[in-house]
């Protein structure tokens, strides 16, 4: 059994402890590229970086089309990996798109993305989870503050903080359509949350997380450490947001007419594969946390294809 | 019976019609002050204006103290004019503070405020509604888009668009703590909403408005007219936001640690007093819509007092 470096949900009260892993896992990250030394510095310090207009033009159009047609294809399907709005039956998320043997699988292996993940994580990588998300205008729901790593560690058995989320933003994100909010520097601290994980917690937590969320005092403390700042991932469609597995993030609801959609890949180091969940509970399903036949990604070159 | 110039909630579908009243009701507004011609232009064009840091220093501190102590005084009181959070019993709003025969009554008559209302509304004015609001951090609820005038007209019998809201902001408002959002220029159009007003609608509509809210197509159209822009009332504590009775506004929830509080006065022209509600229903209670003993405000000079 691997030592639990980040116990959580084991006490009745919350506690904040220091992160025990580096943020940049590669000594040569600042000279290797593709991210510049300044970009690596920013990511290390803040726990996220927005690469504006990473995808553009025809390639961005293609991405949007693929998202729309995948949504449409799944409209009348049911399955645990398809999350629908309880009231309207509209699709909100489709998981495991990196195994579609088609467009999104190819995108997840895109060498322009994978080389950045390798630069940061200091090893080959694989996809731990993927999904496409569609959040409608007018009725987009809030998502409360959380660290993904806390859940991945406790419920999935991810041993170390050596993973990151890559969100390819497919709609313009404004201040007023519920952009992702991030607490700068929060990835340097680990909030051991209070309470215990219920069985099959994921069945409700995908819509509203009840355990594993930080208490208000911890959140106040984290925001204080950031000098009172909360950053928002606003930018044009085609931007790519990278955020560290332990960065505290959330989003307000969206009453604007503007929907938000994105493609979401979680890259994990091949040296950080999942163990048994530290909660002692059953692992979550494969579509939420990949543990079968894990192989490092062999990057593919997409750009020429997209332009052909 | 006064002619209903702004019928609403009378059809099964929504419709957008032109505003039939001026926004600036005073021919000499641009030369009279206290607002400058540029400020009057901005208000006329957009339907709101934020006067940054209107109250400052000791006067602002006093305002905050009075709000806090009024909240405390009412903590263990009950009444229809005290709105509490259903789950926690915490106070969210206290109405009718302009009749407290003390600080807030005096503030509502402040000549620095009243002279602006007279400049815009072109007559003497009175307070139609007042309240202090406290929205906590972390769990501040969203408030969906609405025009106040639509409710004031249908449920209270306000004949014309000749009123405005004055919100004295007592906390710093950031992009990320759920600031009021406004659609520029929306006050020039009137959305006749669909449906019918239930009896005693106010009992639920103060927490969540169900009728009188614009449909999504109308909201899209209004935001399109504004070139896709939605403005946010962000600024330091002590700022004063003025917005026209018919300006479409709303706010997202607030998951940040930062609470929001304000003092809210609705000034109406003395020539625009309430008639019978155009819904044909019973009028709402006095604390929501003043109709008893209406007298024009005799402005008072507070600043010297505050500084003494």
Automatic annotation (TrEMBL), chains A, B:
Enzyme class of the recorded protein, top EC level: oxidoreductase
E.C. number: 1.14.11.55
Location of the region described as Disordered in the Swiss-Prot/TrEMBL record: 276-308
Cofactor (UniProt): Fe(2+)
Alphabetized GO MF terms: 2-oxoglutarate-dependent dioxygenase activity; iron ion binding
InterPro entries per the UniProt record, alphabetical: EctD, Phytyl_CoA_dOase-like
Biased composition (Polar residues): 292-308
Keyword check for Acetylation: no
Swiss-Prot/TrEMBL keywords: Dioxygenase, Iron, Metal-binding, Oxidoreductase
Catalytic activity: L-ectoine + 2-oxoglutarate + O2 = 5-hydroxyectoine + succinate + CO2
Record carries keyword Metal-binding: yes
Pfam families according to UniProt: PhyH (PF05721)
Matching SUPFAM superfamilies: Clavaminate synthase-like
Function: Involved in the biosynthesis of 5-hydroxyectoine, called compatible solute, which helps organisms to survive extreme osmotic stress by acting as a highly soluble organic osmolyte. Catalyzes the 2-oxoglutarate-dependent selective hydroxylation of L-ectoine to yield (4S,5S)-5-hydroxyectoine.
UniProt family annotation: Belongs to the PhyH family. EctD subfamily.
Complex formation: Homodimer.
Protein name: Ectoine hydroxylase
